[in-house]
Amino acid sequence: SSVALAVVALSPLVASVNVNLDDEASIMSTVATYAYEMMTYYKNNATDTPKDEVGSFPKPPYYWWESGAVWGGLIDYWAYTNDSSYVNTTRDALVANFGPNQDLIMPNKRDQEGNDDQAFWIFALMSALEYQFPLPSDSDPQYLDVAKKAFDGMAARWDTKTCNGGLKWQIYPDSVVGYDYKNSVSNGAFFALAARLARYTGNQTYTDWAVKTWDWSQRIGLIGPKYEIFDGTDDKSNCSEVNHMQWSYGVGIYLHGAATMYNFTNGSAIWQQRTSGLLERSAVFFSPFKNATNVMWEAACEGAYSCNTDQQSFKAYLGRFLAKTAIMAQFTAPAVQILLRTSAAAAAKSCSGGSHGTTCGTRWYVGGYDGTYGLGQQLNALEVTQALLAGSAGAPDT
User: Fold this and answer.
1) Which tens digits make up the pLDDT trace of 216-253?
2) Span between the terminal Cα atoms of the chain, in Å
3) According to the UniProt entry, where is the signal peptide (predicted)?
4) What pTM, to 2 d.p., does this model score?
5) Closest C-alpha to 366, from 341, 347, 340
6) Alpha-helical runs (H) found in the chain
7) 201: exposed, middle or buried (C-beta count within 10 Å: 0-12, 13-18, 19+)?
């Protein structure tokens, strides 16, 4: 019928992402495609955007923390590829979110700003410093000053009233959920930031915080006996019980912190052991099935099709921090390379949806596009693939 003909005429020519992982130019072209599609979600750089909305992706469904995560990914993208397409947008986003006190506390994001949320913005500033990302104008606050102030704010919230320390998930007592929860991502991020600041500045205070936070995490059981990273614990029970849920980004964050400490201590045996243990433990997020060996997955929710919007982006950070771990602790590089290459190849097959044939899905192990899409799915594919280029940026600055 003519109707059927019309439909055929309208169906787009579907391309899919063909990446040759042995060819740097092919990887660069692929990550440029992922980044471009990811940035189609960004609307808040229009001239009439209120200043305190610049840098935020649309909520719902995307919370403030994930915006910070995207800018952190794009700083690495620039450092690894020398593509400056998003430099001005990224820098504007960072500066717009420094907050009135230049400490990454945004009054209009109060309902979305926990310790871990804020930490993802500090991660971005640390990458900007470590890779000499173009600076704000002289009249604006500078990355290091803001990162230090934000870190000091977290340190001031270290809570000894329960559990002999630790950071709560949330910053504000009136938070709807999570003020009584001490979670691994807030504490792991604080640990990793302390490690990065120690290495970047050489200041002993940061080293002390890194050691203290690691020790606390281990003592409470957020870091398990086999280096599992468990979700969190309730301070109303004085952290006597631990929620054993495991998420990919949790182990990624602690792993990068441990590798940074290994690097900063010139290869101390204890940090080598911790880095190795965490890397081994990350195996729970790979090889979901016999025919998907070394393919990354979000073990806690992907199989059950239950990942929420936040969780849809967690693989991005495991990919990001694996790559940075391999640079900080080079003994991990051979194992990391296998995980990243296999996952990047699987991600490319999943990025075959949408009208351009480059929309990425959630489940990389299915061998194609699974019909899901979003900011997190694009960021996952971008991060795990550009991670293969991390070595080209050289060692992060001190």
Assistant:
1) 999 999 999 999 999 999 999 999 999 999 999 999 99
2) 68
3) 1-16
4) 0.95
5) 347
6) 2-10, 24-39, 64-81, 87-96, 115-130, 143-156, 184-201, 204-220, 248-264, 269-281, 314-328, 333-350, 375-386
7) middle
